[in-house]
């Protein structure tokens, strides 16, 4: 069974409190296309997944956690996005590079997803406005950022050799 926001609020949060924890990290919140991706193929960065209930149910879960003195951290995905064209950001404006790097640099071969172009001010504004939106709209207390290694390194932290973007010597 896939748990719901309401089930988590009513059944799991009291148990977390009883066990003495003061924080919880929730993953797969952003709407995603493929359940087996554990929420990491995000298609809508400004929507909570409806698989688990309504947006009001999510707000109620977070409010209840706060009443119990539990901080709520969101597992947020800014390292990559779904490569879907019909229900995601990929090819949003009809081009390959509106949000993502173009060509092979814009694709994560292992995750089968698109890679954001952090060198674009528009991409940075989009992601920062999204982070702020989750804090203000849903009252999350903070984040756990997924895939940070992939965000920091061209080789994405994989144990494979890649050439630098200028065609220089390989890096590992």
What would the keywords be for this entry?
disordered C terminus; single chain; 10 strands; 4 helices; three-stranded antiparallel beta sheet; alpha/beta; 29% helix; elongated; 172 residues
What does it look like?
The longest helix is centred in the C-terminal third of the chain and has 18 residues, at 121-138. The chain is an alpha/beta fold. The chain is elongated and about 50 Å long. Strands 1-4-8 form a three-stranded parallel beta sheet, with helices on one face. A three-stranded antiparallel beta sheet has the order 5-7-6, with no helix packed on it. Strands 2-3 form a two-stranded antiparallel sheet. Helix content is 29%, strand content 21%. A hairpin with a 6-residue loop joins strand 9 (162-163) and strand 10. The chain has four helices and ten strands.
Describe the protein's topology.
Blueprint: H1 5-18, E1 23-26, E2 30-32, E3 42-48, H2 55-67, E4 71-77, E5 81-82, E6 107-108, E7 113-114, H3 121-138, E8 142-146, H4 148-152, E9 162-163, E10 170-171
Parallel strand pairs: 1-4, 4-8
Antiparallel strand pairs: 2-3, 5-7, 6-7, 9-10
